Amino acid sequence: LAVLHVSDWLADPLSLSSWSSVPPGQAAIRDALARPLGGRLAFAGEMTDHAQWGTVGGAWAAGEQAVDALFRAGA
Question: How much is the pLDDT for 14?
């Protein structure tokens, strides 16, 4: 096995780092972040999943949900 690609989220000027969980008491942020923007852009990842936040499974599920939401929006 070899590393094919590594992201440096903290140094990326467009992402400005990343989150894997939300601050305590702020679970509602997940829904706001998971909503498509302008019908064409969706954010997905382990922090937007309610059931599996902070896990690869949550990231995968959130990605699938984001794609479904974009298709429903007609993107």
Answer: 76
What number of H helices and E strands is found in the chain? 2, 0
pTM (two decimals): 0.63
Mean pLDDT by 10-residue block, N- to C-terminus, for the chain (75 residues)? Answer: 72 71 83 80 83 87 86 74
Token pair for 29: 């942020």
Beta-carbon contacts of 65 under 8 Å, excluding residues fewer than 6 positions away, are: 34, 44, 48, 49
Task: Please name which of 29, 35, 72, 36 lies closest in space to residue 53, comparing C-alpha atoms.
Answer: 29
Q: Please, are residues 58 and 51 in contact by the beta-carbon 8 Å criterion?
A: yes
Cα–Cα distance for residue pair 54/69, rounded to 1 Å = 21
Residue 23 to residue 10: CA distance in whole angstroms: 18
The pLDDT value given to residue 29: 84
